[in-house]
Amino acid sequence: MTINLRTFKIKFNLNRKAFRSFLTRLENKPPKQLYKMMLETDREVFAELDCLDCGNCCKKMTPTFTPVDIKRIAGHFSMTPEAFKDKWLVYDKKDGDWQNKKQPCQFLNLSDNKCSIYPIRPADCSGFPHFTKKQPSEYMHVHKQNIEYCPATYRMVEKMMEKVNR
Length: 166
Hints:
8 helices, 2 domains, two-stranded antiparallel sheet, 4 strands
């Protein structure tokens, strides 16, 4: 399924309140078998969607770079971690995180939405959109943020609403 980001944004704006309210309910009172439902929904969503059709996460969001990520990626470029941070990252004092200086991500190839450092990408990227975390109710706040940018997260919430409300 091809992703039209303009249509996606309109759909998100129409459903923002209901989706966030639903995620808050899941966070406060998770249904039994929530993890199992999330795993099942993850498989369903990614059978429908291909992230390479979108790339919006890399265009509009920034991952958090851990010290391990910084060391690994800097080594790939034969740089010191300090030189890597100086060149590409900024320290967010509020969150205490290292993040990209600019968007879209400097490692995103805009012509095909592929990551130029995919095998060594930050852990935050490799786990995105975080559907399959062991304690899914602890990630609902993350999904509340991601639904605005990620069509897969949006679709996950749609499907979860259908399953929970059966």
